[in-house]
Amino acid sequence: MGAVRFEGVDILDSLGQIMELHTQHYKDDFDLDKELIPKLALSGEPEDRRLLWLSRPCGTYTLREWEVYLEGSHANKVWEFYHEQTKDPVLAYALSIKDVQDGKVVGNIYPLDYGSHVERVKLLACPIGKVAVVFEDGANITIPYRDRRQLMNELAPVHGSPKSITDLPENERELAVILKRERLKRSCHATNGDIKEYIDSLKKNTLRGKLKKSRTAAAPAHKPPSTKKEPER
Question: Residues 163, 136: contact at Cβ < 8 Å?
């Protein structure tokens, strides 16, 4: 399949169907996705509505796209890990959230070639320059990345323990240009597709689908009549 875009779809419903087909273990990871994605959909920050999502045999992940492009950030390490350190088959997608309608998160889904995307991120990722730290007392202070540990320790007696830490790029304009270019290229190269047809094609190619197909092919052409109810599969 070439580059494709599924426009105006129910994002959580679509991702849930993909997860059920591809993720066999730690499916409760998707419960976290179902909490996080609607919150980000209502955010006033446009970058909170541009996400990357992956489904693997053991779990799922939702990440902010811009954070994936920060070299050495948590999101960057997660995105690259399953390509570099495991042989797990990964289904990866870019999400562009447009709106929340009747409680449904609506937007566009772009299937990605995970391996190729990781290699491109490695080439384009920007260095981290600063970190925004929110402390126990609510203070939000931006400090240099290289001195973060020392400065957080110095600030803790005054403001309390750090509650959240957000990595920020060394050059915000550079990151913005990279993201704009990558998204424009993704959008221009993609043709509109049918999410139902895509999910049907996944059913045929997943391990479960192949197993079901092989069982059907191996079954005898004529079965003797039986009054015993067969177990559901």
Answer: yes
| 76: its two tokens | 């960057």
Q: Which residues of 126-161 are buried (b: 16+ CB within 10 A; e: fewer)?
A: bebbbbebebeeeeeeebebeebeeebeebeeebee
Question: Taking the CB of residue 106, how many other CB atoms lie within 10 A of it?
Answer: 17
pLDDT tens sequence across 54-107: 999 999 999 999 999 999 999 999 999 999 888 889 999 999 999 999 999 999
pTM value? 0.85
CB 105 within 8 A of CB 118: no
The CA–CA distances, whole Å, from 7 to 106, 138, 167, 187 equal 9, 39, 31, 11
222 burial level (CB within 10 Å; 0-12, 13-18, 19+): exposed
Mean pLDDT over residues 174-202, rounded?
A: 95
Above 80 in pLDDT, residue 224?
no
Residues 6+ apart with CB under 8 A from 173: none
CB-facing half-sphere around the CA of 103: CA atoms within 13 A? 1
Say if residue 230's pLDDT is above 90: no
**218 burial type by CB count under 10 A (0-12 exposed, 13-18 middle, 19+ buried):** exposed
Q: How far is Cα 130 from Cα 146, in angstroms, rounded to an integer?
A: 8
